[in-house]
Amino acid sequence: MSLNDRRRHRRHAGRRTQEQRRTETQQRLMDATAEALADLGWSGLSTTEVSRRAGVSRGAQQHHYPTKMALVAAALEHLLDRLRAEYEQAFAELPRDRRDVAGALDLFWETLRQPPAMALLELALAGRTDEDLRGVSLDLNERVVQIVKEVFHDLFPETLPEDLVDTLIRGLFAMLVGLSLQNSLDGDADGHQAKVLAQVKEFARLLVPDPGTVPATAAASAEPQPVPVPEH
After folding, report:
1. How far, in Å, CA of 159 to CA of 225, rounded?
2. CA angle at residue 143 from 101 to 98, to 5 degrees?
3. pLDDT 10s digit of each residue in the chain, 232 long?
4. How far is 78 from 211, CA to CA, in rounded Å?
């Protein structure tokens, strides 16, 4: 390798390293925003607190996200991508006998009680009274519903009609969000939320067969039918 080639290689390597540092800083800021929202709520969120939690200077934070709203808008996109990726990975890592609709619901319930999902819930609730935030979070519910529908179709393809999937998931999401909000207040001290989730899973098992099984109606239609004997 010539001297000029080595210099070009070092310059390119330096640019890659700088890009990596930039990505890492942004990642830390996004994660810190989610943690601050979950812990302190929208009213307690500040760019100073996010910088402190991320371990970066205020100047570095403002370089990447000049305003609080720019930071929150970026965090929202990051959280949506993160939640989907982490959910799909967690489902794939479940024991094989739990990779069914009940296991998917257990995992969804667990996901909704973690800081990233609580941060999104906080943004949705705060957008009701904050005009600036409303512009960022107005379609948040719809975007989450669409993600849940896409993941459902990936995990359990062709199990239910599309119009039924849409209605069921919207209802399920609204109910679990309400339960997660109550859970954040009382930790399900009386076990009511666990009972509701257990009933929902029983209902879901009736609608969505375990992967690899054949629904009874499909099995019946697949049974050999007697061949009619022609009359002479």
Report:
1. 25
2. 15
3. 555 565 555 555 556 688 888 889 999 999 999 999 999 999 999 999 999 999 999 999 999 999 999 999 999 999 999 999 999 999 999 999 999 999 999 999 999 999 999 999 999 999 999 998 998 999 999 999 999 999 999 999 988 998 999 999 999 999 999 999 999 999 999 999 999 999 999 999 999 987 654 443 333 333 444 444 444 4
4. 31
Hey, how many other C-beta atoms are within 10 angstroms of the C-beta on 222? 9
Long-range contacts of 62-69 (CB under 8 A, 24+ apart): 64/22, 64/25, 64/26, 64/29, 65/29, 69/132, 69/133, 69/136
Residue partners of 88: CB distance under 8 A and separation at least 6: 151, 154
Cα atoms in the Cβ-side hemisphere of radius 13 Å centred on 174: 7
C-alpha closest to that of 179 among 193, 190, 200: 193
- DSSP codes of every residue in 200-232: HHHHHHHHSPPTT---HHHHHHHSPPPPPPPP-
